[in-house]
Write a structure and sequence with these properties.
Strand order of the largest sheet: 2-1-4-3
Structural class: alpha+beta
Strand content: 15-25%
Number of strands: 4
Shape: elongated
Helix content: 10-25%
Order of helices and strands: HHEEHEHE
Distance between the termini: 63 Å
Length: 146
């Protein structure tokens, strides 16, 4: 079928593949896929080696802040081993508040997000500590902060 407003063109011939380089890969590679690192830079290797590892006796400071109608603690700062999981912080707070098994307690880091229970406290401290080297944990008896 021909269109009157377009001139008829004969298809251009398909170029033949260049076989002069037999060692080239069959599929073309992108620049990012073709660059393979044999090893990481020293600073990246050091950072990855030390990530998530804490000395057995390393402790971090946690400051608890009551939100809304939650009862205030008489001692709002505690030390916990950095390698512990966040569920230990929840257990400690529930014990200090004398919560029943049916009571709910909601914890938020920096009044912004609720970390998962299996998050390592030392990692949270490294990322979200304040200027006084304390991890701020806000707590409430009802959901807060979104």
């Amino acid at each position: 079928m021909e269109f009157p407003d377009q001139p008829s063109q004969s298809p251009s011939p398909v170029p033949e593949p260049d076989n002069s380089c037999p060692d080239s890969p069959e599929l073309p590679l992108t620049m990012t896929a073709s660059a393979i690192l044999s090893d990481l830079p020293k600073d990246a290797s050091t950072a990855l080696a030390s990530a998530g590892s804490f000395a057995p006796d390393e402790k971090v400071l946690i400051r608890f802040k009551a939100v809304g109608s939650a009862p205030a603690l008489s001692q709002d700062v505690c030390k916990i081993t950095a390698a512990r999981r966040f569920e230990e912080v929840v257990r400690y707070l529930r014990r200090k508040l004398r919560c029943k098994d049916t009571d709910s307690v909601f914890l938020y880091v920096n009044s912004a997000f609720a970390p998962s229970l299996d998050e390592v406290v030392g990692n949270l401290h490294k990322c979200f500590k304040n200027g006084n080297d304390q991890l701020i944990v806000a707590y409430s008896m009802t959901p807060a902060f979104g």
